[in-house]
Amino acid sequence: MKKKKGYLKRFAGYYKPHMRLFITDMLCALIISVFNLVYPAVTKEIINNFVPNKMLDMLLICSGALLIFYLVKALLNFVLQYWGHLVGTRMQADMRSELFNHLQKLPFSYFDENKTGVIMSRMTNDLFEISELAHHGPEDVFLSLVTIIGAFIMLANINIYLTLIIFAFIPVIVIYTMFMRNRMRRISRQMRIVQGEINADIESAVSGIRVSRAYAARDHEKEKFEKSNIEFVKTKGRQYRVMGEFFSSMSFFLDFLYFIVLLAGGLFFYNGKIDTGEFTAFVLYISVLITPVRTITNIYEQIQAGTTGFARFCEIMDEPAETEPENPVTPGILRGEIVFDNVSFGYKSDDGQKVIKDFSMHIPAGRTIALVGPSGGGKSTLCHLIPRFYEIDDGIITVDGYDLKELDRQILRKNIGIVQQDVFLFNGTIRENIAYGDFSANEEQIISAAKRANIHDFIMSLPEGYDTNVGERGVKLSGGQKQRVSIARAFLKNPPILILDEATSALDNATEMLIQNALNELSAGRTTLVVAHRLSTVKNADEIIVITHNGVEERGTHEQLLAKGGIYKELYDYQFKQN
What is the pLDDT of residues 98-116, one digit of tens each? Predict the structure, then answer.
């Protein structure tokens, strides 16, 4: 219960920046509700007084007043539709911005556990439902409650006993609504989960369309998608079944109100307890009363969808962001001396199993250190720990003597450049992707970085040059071209620490040689950590460290490790045995 109150308080907080529009919207809803109560009262007077007494002037005056009321009501409804939706849209934009900013601060472990499509569903579908609730929820509920209370007061002034008979059935409707609430909430939440899974499948299928085509896996992808699609239909079917039971029952209850007013009102009229005008007013007020009751029942699905969406929104917002020390150290430009001291680390998804255990390593500033060894030894994981993409479980990592946990995370990452095997380019121009290394860089600096990465000539051969769009994930460029764009990005960043994680393993020999030259220049004068399986690319490293599941097995120069005749020599001989 406390959690629901907490959600309600948090939700209400998003109205504060738009309170003026919201109050205007609610004021319009109040006036409309009052106008809705006028027509039956005027009708009663016309039937009981103006027509029998031939008061033509009063009939015309009241008719003219009603026409003015309806014109004003039309204007107020325009305000409700326009400004009311504007409030919801602005709140949606605020939440989307807040959610996007929070996602930027979440640790990598969160994205390891959550699918991109599911996150996208929460940023689009859920926030849209929240915005609809933000507009229609308070407005419709307030308008309905004012109308119901107003109708009760007006009817009670006519005949309190008949009014109590009619209103005695409204609690039954409310109790039934509460009874159906849990079923509606559960099925709505299940629907959101299934919708997120479908979005994730679509995102994965579209992103991997080239792989699936290459492996003629169209039928497999279709079968996988159809499973999710069938589950969607089943869950949606269960949702509509509950909705069908709910709305059909509500429709019967509302019709039953008409039945009660006709039966009870007819008996009261027959026994002279009410007159013709009052009986007519009762029938009209029931029409006025049924509209808000129907509105509340119809909006229930929207309330469920909106509250479920807001709960899912809060789930992400409540995820702990990357932590910062109270007084972070801000050293500026680092030299690049890195020390691992008895470091242990395990991914959350591995049930506590340690990928790295009691690991120690010293990397002097300005040296090029290569990490080699069999897959699964934790080489790439070590690279992820230096920029604090993940938090270590035990031990300490220092840079220039500073504990990473005491450093300002942004300043730390500004001092580190990363070139990976799987290059990610944003859907934009080549210029924009290179400029990611330094957004303040001018054109001359961008071109200089491209030249040093051996990509400038290729860029200039394109019809649009640096304004060429690379497509989603850089799909319009080859692997080597994307790699050189990422190297140009690193040149532009000019970091003192450089991490090369399998930067050339996916390239052909000719392209590898071209890129290796660029990487050699990029590494000069920097602390460079190279992860590689191709030992030919690390022979010139200042030191080579062989890492297995047991930690550091061997370390030394290329010649020293060959002479030692251990694991490194075995790996080297295996790769070059044909020679």
Answer: 988 898 888 888 887 887 7
